[in-house]
Amino acid sequence: MFTDLFNTILYNPILNALIGIYNVIPWHDFGLSVVIITLLIKIILYPLTASSLKSQKALQDLQPKMQELKEKHKGNQQAIAQETMKLYKANNVNPLSSCLPLLVQLPILLALYWALRDGIATVDPARLYSFIEYPGEINPLAFGFLQLSAPSYVLAVLAGLAQYAQARMLSHKKGPHVPGAKDENMMAMMNKQMLYVMPVVTVLIGASLPAALTLYWFISTVLTWLQQILLWKKQGKPGVSQVS
User: Could you tell me how many helices (H) and strands (E) the chain has, helices first?
Assistant: First the structure.
């Protein structure tokens, strides 16, 4: 039941979109098909991504006030939790919304992984819609040099660098130093670990996957980074509401 639903909603549409684009674009380049499908997915997920980025920025801007609350109610975890929720409410921040796009992307990534795997191999004609022409064997060589069916270490490193650039931009959005905030060094250490660990994980995973999926991840990360830059410029540095 779940498998049929997954195939109907995600796998079959993505596979057919990939093959359909491959059929109509010049030179029948599957790499270009991956680029186009990535753009389409990013457009569909744009509202969720924008919401996530806004939440991340808002949470980062609230860090100084959160540190003040921890110092003010030191040792009283219940008071800290209550005041933190008031701070979130006063500034219209939902800390869970930053995780939503990732949760939505996981099934899409799985569907895309299988679609790319099956697309690069021999496509099952039974999976194609009636209006999608069966292409036969697909050429896995993209742009004349990139073998999509094999891992690409260069592309994995590029994806890691894109991940680092995005994380670094967020980590630099910090408020002023709060004297006496003993948790600040710990938080800075955790932010630094995320800044370096996630790109390394991206490289390691990307180096073990077919280049077609790593290409998607690289382009998707770059587009998210650009969206983040535009959002940061548009929003500027918002004020933080006080909690009495």
Answer: 9, 2
